[in-house]
Design brief:
It is built from eleven helices and seven strands. It is an alpha/beta fold. The chain is globular. It has a five-stranded parallel beta sheet, sandwiched between helices.
Length: 293
């Protein structure tokens, strides 16, 4: 990951990252920061450059045709200079990655958002190695609720049609399969195993470069929370968050009421995540007992 061999016009890199967690409001944050006059966001949401686990060859054979089609479209998008916003991609080349930020001109904060960076075992080390001064934003959500929100997104885009209970059955069964392969149900549960994920960033970045927050914090007073985040990025904190349409917001089809979760579903997830929640609680010194209810 040596940038010295690249042409100067392609050596611009981000100085902050939205690292996750998935479905914890990070997509909304990406689009709101993109509207800030002192912030430049990569036009490609989710480039996944630093997550070495997110590569074409790691996807299950059943997903390969769709992934390869998407990657061909991404190649054309990158070759055209990344015109306009695009959601999702697998950028593996450093020059392609640097090209995502080539249009930044004078913004104080230059960033990208790839929610797999929190889950990834490689991303924290990769970011710290190439951009040691980077600031990292992490927003965590009650892992049982996070799983449900991801299920709703899959239901909305037609990836699944079954109930949440069935979804959990399939997800737990999937744990018996190789965890090195990306599938519909992997890393569905692993996305909520935060303790080790957060610890990787705590070990590689000083506290002043980490903005570790919780989805619950955003629900109490979003404007205040957003201002604190802008202060962390060292940009004008008086700029309010704009109302924006988020493409990844689930839009459920009619007749999905029967697919709502039941208490037993949450109980299964709480039991699964309990040890990890207690470890995270000890690691960061925050009371997470509400996640165990």
């Amino acid at each position: 990951m040596d940038v010295t061999c690249l042409p100067k016009r392609h050596t611009r890199l981000p100085n902050f990252f939205i690292a996750g967690a998935p479905k914890a409001g990070t997509d909304l944050l990406y689009y709101q920061l993109d509207r800030h006059p002192q912030v430049f966001m990569s036009p490609l949401k989710e480039p996944n450059y630093f997550a070495e686990e997110i590569r074409i060859e790691r996807f299950d054979p059943s997903l390969q045709p769709r992934i390869k089609t998407s990657h061909a479209e991404l190649r054309a998008y990158l070759d055209a200079g990344a015109p306009g916003k695009r959601f999702g991609g697998i950028v593996t080349g450093l020059e392609d990655y640097c090209g995502l930020f080539a249009s930044a001109h004078g913004e104080r904060a230059i960033g990208e958002g790839s929610v797999c960076y929190l889950w990834s075992r490689t991303a924290a080390a990769g970011i710290a190695s190439l951009i040691p001064h980077a600031r990292v934003i992490i927003v965590l959500m009650d892992p049982a609720e996070r799983a449900y929100q991801q299920y709703l997104k899959s239901l909305s885009d037609g990836s699944v049609t079954h109930s949440f209970s069935t979804h959990l059955d399939l997800a737990f069964d999937d744990l018996l399969k190789p965890q090195s392969q990306i599938r519909l149900f992997n890393p569905f549960l692993a996305f909520g195993e935060y303790a080790e994920q957060v610890d990787r960033y705590l070990k590689r970045f000083p506290p002043e470069q980490l903005f570790l927050s919780f989805y619950e914090d955003t629900q109490r007073d979003y404007h205040q929370w957003f201002a604190q985040l802008l202060t962390f990025l060292e940009v004008d904190c008086s700029v309010p968050p704009e109302e924006v349409d988020v493409p990844s917001t689930p839009h459920l089809p009619p007749g999905t009421a029967e697919r709502r979760r039941v208490p037993e579903d949450r109980a299964r997830l709480v039991a699964y995540y309990e040890r990890d929640i207690l470890r995270l609680q000890s690691l960061i010194g925050r009371d997470l007992s509400s996640w165990l209810d």
